[in-house]
From TrEMBL:
GO MF annotation, one: branched-chain 2-oxo acid dehydrogenase activity
Pfam families documented for this protein: Transket_pyr (PF02779), Transketolase_C (PF02780)
Required cofactor names: thiamine diphosphate
EC number: 1.2.4.4
KW Oxidoreductase (keyword) present: yes
Every Transketolase-like pyrimidine-binding domain range: 67-244
Protein name: 3-methyl-2-oxobutanoate dehydrogenase (2-methylpropanoyl-transferring)
Taxonomic lineage of the native organism: Eukaryota, Fungi, Dikarya, Ascomycota, Pezizomycotina
Catalytic activity: N(6)-[(R)-lipoyl]-L-lysyl-[protein] + 3-methyl-2-oxobutanoate + H(+) = N(6)-[(R)-S(8)-2-methylpropanoyldihydrolipoyl]-L-lysyl-[protein] + CO2
Gene3D superfamilies xrefs: 3.40.50.920, 3.40.50.970
Keywords tagged on the record: Oxidoreductase
SUPFAM superfamilies in the record: Thiamin diphosphate-binding fold (THDP-binding), TK C-terminal domain-like
Organism field: Acrodontium crateriforme
Length: 390
């Protein structure tokens, strides 16, 4: 952006200065950067973390470490490799730690037979994982970015998801234990090939679970549950949270349910449903809206977006009468469309306003327009205002 700061009458050339960064306006009230150090969505004390009733008794009676999301992923992978000889980890550049350092030091501890690099072939590495899972291993295949999963789409949909169905009543033929990990979502400068959130493509496919964690504590427990799952799991990690989200995480191993949404905040006037990074956007919008509109808003994290926890959502909307679904991926045929249709069927007589979807616009994400494509706090705030005034 060019901003003239001085000029003289006549032929003098104005002096200009160039802003090399983008930021919120000086008087912005809504679209401020997320303060991960204070957000209620993260556990800022050990006591808060250990109070989670979903944890195992051993974990609740243990200690915590304050770590970020990629460290939580690393810890979960290390535990799985250490305690189960069937677990193996592989992908592009995994052996040296990976692009986001999630597998850092694992190759040196567990050896190149269990943590190793693959050729640059997503179809090949997922196909290898399917074969290993069918032979009784518990492979963890890493796609370097979710944007590059499409060559492996046929392997996931036509092979991994169908293996158990092909076997019929016969046992021993399935891809249980296969976990396909991939960083996903926007970081502010990802552009066309490093900003995609393709989760809705996998939610159409019976036979796979699709999981998106919001925080380090969730990531550790959900990943360990995914590796133990008797069905293949697509595990999508919001890459902007790898270092941004820091919280206390139990040292002991634990799993979290893959079939249960989590109600993060109780409310009586509106239900907001989301998952992954947009939950932080929703929390900021809720804080402002509750102050401005004298309302209380319930916030639900789906966690597993297929198969998703319909009962928790329907019960909440039947209580509040209003529903907003928020996600970063494109609005067309997205997770929000399925949630909205289910809410309409299950809560029709209780709805006080049409179900709102606040999601990414239906376009590819150009570098200069990324912040305009994904939902921001103002869009969620406006949706809250609209459903209250309907």
């Amino acid at each position: 952006m060019l901003r003239p700061i001085s000029s003289r009458i006549g032929n003098a050339i104005p002096t200009i200065t160039r802003r090399s960064y983008a930021s919120h306006p000086p008087k912005a009230r809504l679209n401020l950067p997320t303060d991960y150090g204070t957000t209620p969505l993260l556990h800022h004390t050990s006591k808060a973390a250990l109070a989670n009733q979903e944890l195992s008794e051993e974990a609740r009676n243990g200690t915590t470490s304050r770590i970020n999301l990629f460290q939580a992923i690393n810890g979960a992978l290390a535990h799985a490799l250490r305690t189960d000889q069937r677990v193996m980890l592989f992908g592009e550049d995994v052996a040296f730690g990976g692009v986001f350092r999630c597998s850092m030091n694992l190759a040196s501890e567990f050896g190149e037979d269990r943590v190793f690099n693959t050729p640059l072939s997503e179809q090949g590495l997922v196909g290898f994982g399917i074969g290993a899972a069918m032979e009784g291993m518990r492979p963890v295949a890493e796609i370097q970015f979710a944007d590059y999963v499409y060559p492996a789409f046929d392997q996931i949909v036509n092979e991994a998801a169908k293996a158990r169905f092909r076997a019929g009543v016969n046992k021993g033929m399935d891809c249980g234990g296969l976990t396909v990990r991939m960083p996903c979502g926007s970081v502010g400068h990802g552009a066309l090939y490093h900003t995609q959130s393709p989760e809705s493509l996998f939610t159409h496919i019976p036979g796979v679970h699709v999981v998106v964690p919001r925080s380090p504590m969730q990531a550790k427990g959900l990943l360990l549950a995914a590796i133990e799952c008797p069905d293949p799991v697509v595990f999508m990690e919001p890459k902007i949270l790898y270092r941004a989200a820091v919280e206390h995480v139990p040292e002991e191993a634990y799993t979290l349910p893959l079939n249960k949404a989590e109600t993060l905040k109780q409310g009586k006037d509106i239900t907001i449903i989301s998952y992954g990074t947009p939950l932080y956007t929703c929390q900021s919008a809720i804080t402002a809206a509750e102050k401005d509109f004298d309302c209380t808003i319930e916030l639900i994290d789906l966690r597993t977006i297929f198969p998703w926890d319909r009962q928790t959502v329907i019960s909440s909307v039947n209580k509040t009468g209003r529903c907003i679904v928020v996600h970063e991926s494109m609005v067309n045929a997205g997770v929000g469309a399925e949630v909205a249709a289910t809410v309409q069927e299950g809560c029709f007589l209780r709805l006080e306003a049409p179900v709102q979807r606040v999601a990414g616009w239906t376009t590819h994400t150009g570098l200069a327009y990324e912040k305009f494509v994904i939902p921001d706090v103002a869009r969620v705030y406006d949706a809250i205002k609209n459903v209250l005034e309907y």
